[in-house]
Amino acid sequence: MNVTYLGLLAGAITTAAAIPQVVRTYRTRQARDISIWQPVLLNVGMSMWLIYGLIIGDTPLIAANAFSIVCYSLLIVMKILYKEDDKSKSCA
């Protein structure tokens, strides 16, 4: 097996882990139980991995981290946007 394919497969699997949370948060419009720090810290780390991947020219590293950054950035945005909705639902 070519090591690039292994990297692409590993990146696809670990990146796919973010999708269910993003979809659930979007559907329920509720992000109360999500800590803002987890996706923020992940984005910082993944940004560093992305820069590293760009420097060494590693396609799997670049692709996996770029997509993950998009997913976790969406989660951060939803956490901020749905904050007001969470407050009104908990008071009702």
Automatic annotation (TrEMBL):
Family annotation (InterPro entries): SemiSWEET (IPR047662), SWEET_rpt (IPR004316)
Transmembrane segment boundaries: 6-23, 35-55, 61-82
Assigned keywords, A-Z: Membrane, Transmembrane, Transmembrane helix
Cellular component GO terms, alphabetical: membrane
Molecular function via GO: sugar transmembrane transporter activity
Superkingdom: Bacteria
Identification of the protein by name: MtN3 and saliva related transmembrane protein
Organism per entry: Geotalea daltonii (strain DSM 22248 / JCM 15807 / FRC-32) (Geobacter daltonii)
